[in-house]
Task: structure prediction
Amino acid sequence: MRGKHSPGLALSELLIVLAVIMTCLALAKPDLLNLASRYTLKAAAREVAMDLQHIRLLAVKEKKTFQVIFDSNSYQVIQLNDGIVAESRSFSPEYSGINLTNASITFDSRGTSNGNSVTLANGSGTTKVFVAPTGKVMIE
Result:
C-alpha cells in the first residue's frame, strides 16, 4: 500500500525552488550587465582597429598622407595633401557610452605611421588601439 503522499510536488516545495532560482538570478544580474558593457567596448575597439587598417590601405593606394583625428565620441579622416575631410564617423548611434581619447594618428603613402594610440572607455573599463610606427594596428 502507498502512503498518503501524492507523486507530485507540494506547493511549499515549488515556492522554495522558485526562491532559490530568483536568488541566483538576482546575484547574476550585475555580472550580466557588466558583460554586455565589456562586449560593447571590445566591439567598438575592433571597429576602430578595422577603420584604421582601412585608412592605412587607403593612404598606400592613393599615395597620400591621411590623418585620423579622434574626438570624445567621433573621428575625422583628413587627407593632409589637400586638406579634404575624406571621412567622418560618430560612435554615438552605434556605441553609446563609449568615449574616445583625443588623439591623432597619421598614415603616410608607404603605410607607416606616427606610432600613436587611441583609448576607448566606458563604465566597464578601457581598451587601447595601438598603431605601431610600421603601421600595424593592434588592440590591447
Summary: The first strand starts at residue 66 and ends at 70. The chain has a mean pLDDT of 87. Strands lie at 66-70, 74-79, 84-90, 99-100, 104-107, 117-122, 125-131, 137-139. Helices lie at 11-62.
